[in-house]
Specification:
With 189 residues, this protein is of the alpha/beta class. It contains 3 helices and 11 strands, in the order E-E-E-H-E-H-E-E-E-H-E-E-E-E. The protein has a 6-stranded mixed β-sheet with strand order 6-5-4-7-8-9. Strands 1-2-3-11-10 form a 5-stranded antiparallel β-sheet. The longest helix is centred in the first third of the chain and has 19 residues, at 28-46.
């Protein structure tokens, strides 16, 4: 359950999601502004490539929708549903829940993630997609925790490089709650 009533915490607005308090981190206007910049860069880089954007559910749905609002190139979007988080921690195990239905052979694929931290999920996705023989794979994420990323695949596009904090909002959740928040909040610790 989400309590959107502001709590008094040293003059800062906080919210409560289930049993945890969160403080404002990135406001909606800043999120949209950075996504517009990313879309412009993708329009330039991916023009004439007819890319397939592959959103990773559930977290990327708001980011993918906003990104698609600003792309002007010919492209398609599809979604995979994977999970590696339970509560506030990664489980280290990635489960493939819904598979890929499109033919990606010889096609540019852009993986669209809400957040990339250790890279466990990204490694799993990349290994699966390579077997389908895409022309190239690019990675786009709203949030990137570069200080803990330990994967060999480069991150091609990101809106924000953030510290190792637990966050909710704009598609990111805590045990299924908080995805609908228009801004991003970090845990108040």
């Amino acid at each position: 359950m989400i309590n959107l009533q502001p709590l008094n915490c040293r003059g800062m607005e906080t919210i409560k999601v289930l049993d945890r308090e969160f403080v404002p981190f990135i406001d909606h206007e800043t999120i949209v502004s950075n996504i517009k910049k990313m879309a412009a860069k993708m329009d330039e880089d991916l023009r004439d490539k007819n890319p397939l954007f592959l959103g990773i559910l559930n977290g990327s749905f708001m980011f993918a929708a906003e990104l698609f609002n600003h792309l002007t190139i010919d492209c398609n979007i599809s979604f995979l549903k994977l999970a590696s988080y339970q509560g506030t921690n990664t489980t280290g195990n990635v489960k493939r829940l819904i598979g890929l239905n499109e033919d990606i052979k010889d096609r540019t694929v852009v993986i669209v993630e809400d957040i990339i931290d250790t890279g466990i999920t990204m490694d799993h996705i990349e290994k699966q997609l390579i077997g389908y023989e895409p022309k190239e794979i690019k990675i786009a994420t709203l949030l990137y925790k570069s200080e803990i990323y330990n994967n060999k695949y480069p991150i091609d596009y990101f809106c924000f490089d953030i510290p190792q904090k637990f966050i909710v909002g704009f598609g990111l959740d805590y045990n299924g709650y908080g995805r609908n928040l228009p801004s991003i909040y970090q845990e108040n610790k």
